[in-house]
UniProtKB/TrEMBL annotation:
It holds the Pfam family Glyoxalase. SUPFAM superfamilies: Glyoxalase/Bleomycin resistance protein/Dihydroxybiphenyl dioxygenase. InterPro entries: Glyas_Bleomycin-R_OHBP_Dase, Glyas_Fos-R_dOase_dom, PhnB-like. This is VOC family protein. It comes from the Bacteria. Residues 13-129 form the Glyoxalase/fosfomycin resistance/dioxygenase domain. CDD domains: PhnB_like.
Length: 137
């Protein structure tokens, strides 16, 4: 997989409906995973979308998720730029540069779904998400 850059939208309890709408607009393949699939299936918000990805026939990729229970949702600042792929060296390098002088929100480390993931705000206040597929670190 090559690295890619795409928008990632944070929504409040309606990511499933939004992503299904975007699929109706653009077509394509939609994948949705809930918080319950990766944790307590009985916890509040378990049926909310932890990660949604639409890949369209035109080559667009749009990602979205519901804001987890207990986290603040701020419309107008509810997006991030997502960098993902399997080139760990390249993605780690971008992470280091993007987070330098900014604020790390989620450290770049192995996550429960098996990938290495982190979130930061760069020095300009732009949100970034970095996901390195299937790494062993």
């Amino acid at each position: 997989m090559s690295s890619r850059l795409n928008p990632y939208i944070s929504l409040k309890d309606n990511a499933r409906a939004a992503m299904e709408f975007y699929r109706s607009v653009f077509g394509g393949e939609l994948a949705l995973n809930t918080f319950g699939e990766f944790g307590d299936r009985d916890a509040p918000g378990a049926d909310l979308i932890m990660h949604g990805m639409l890949e369209t026939p035109q080559g667009f990729t749009l990602m979205a998720a519901d804001t987890p229970p207990g986290m603040e949702h701020n419309p107008g600042t509810n997006f991030a730029v997502s960098l993902s792929g399997d080139d760990a060296d390249e993605l780690n390098g971008w992470w280091a540069k993007l987070s330098d002088g900014g604020a790390v929100q989620v450290p770049l480390e192995k996550q429960m779904w098996g990938d290495t993931f982190g979130m930061c705000l760069d020095r300009f206040g732009v949100g970034w998400m970095v996901n390195i597929a299937g790494t062993s670190s």
